[in-house]
Amino acid sequence: MVRTIAASTLALALLGAVAAQAAGDPVATRKAIMQSVAGAAGLSGAMMKGEVAYSPAAGKAAISSFNAAGHTFGDYFPEGSQAGDTTAAAKIWEDRAGFEAAVAKLADAAGAAMQASGKDGPADVEAFKAAVGPVLGTCRDCHQVYRTR
Predict the structure, then answer these.
(1) What is the DSSP string of 111-147?
(2) b/e code 73-83 from CB counts within 10 Å (16+ = b)
(3) Is 84 helix (H, G, I), strand (E, B) or coil?
(4) FRET label pair with 124: which of 7, 13, 48, 115, CA 20 to 30 Å apart?
(5) CA 129, CA 43: separation in Å to the nearest integer?
(6) pLDDT 10s per residue in the chain (149 long)?
(7) What are the CA-CA distances from residue 38 to residues 10, 44, 79, 80, 119 (Å)?
(8) Which residues, listed in sequence order, are joined to residue 88 by a DSSP beta bridge?
(9) What's the sign of the alpha-carbon dihedral 3, 32, 94, 110?
(10) pTM for the full model?
């Protein structure tokens, strides 16, 4: 139980870090958003593998992180932000429509997961897997095309 609460707290803290980023630095902001997604993905994977006891609250926290990222992440790729310490592939700016479609797919999958999770989160790990699986699939697909490493 303590591990589940700690994992949920971590996911929410990472999401809070995103809000604290300066709006003037899109690279730092998108890195912070991806850190929150990585935390949510790590928690999700651990719960799906049985390494961390599943709880609806932790599931809801992870899904909430995915949802927040899905609805904000695409805003932090303005022209000129492809330079510097970033893993964003040049393909993002070369194929803007494709990238925007990938971000929209994440937002749709995360929004569907939010709806499926209800007020209290998915009732059990199987419901969580069903809700989160499509979200993680969109992450994988996007990283294969729009991430350099």
Answers:
(1) HHHHHHHTTT--SSHHHHHHHHHHHHHHHHHHHHHHB
(2) bbebbeeebbe
(3) coil
(4) 13
(5) 12
(6) 555 555 555 555 555 554 444 558 999 999 999 999 999 999 999 999 999 999 999 999 999 999 999 999 999 999 999 988 999 999 999 999 999 999 999 999 999 999 999 999 999 999 999 999 999 999 999 999 999 97
(7) 11, 10, 25, 25, 23
(8) 147
(9) positive
(10) 0.82
Amino acid at 126: E
Architecture of domain 2-146: Up-down Bundle (1.20)
Handedness of CA 69, 70, 72, 73 (dihedral sign): positive
DSSP string, 28-81: HHHHHHHHHHHHHHHHHHHHHHTSS---HHHHHHHHHHHHHHHHHGGGG--TTT
Q: How far apart are CA 127 and CA 138, in angstroms?
A: 18
| The residue count for the chain | 149
Tokens linked to 127? 């419901």
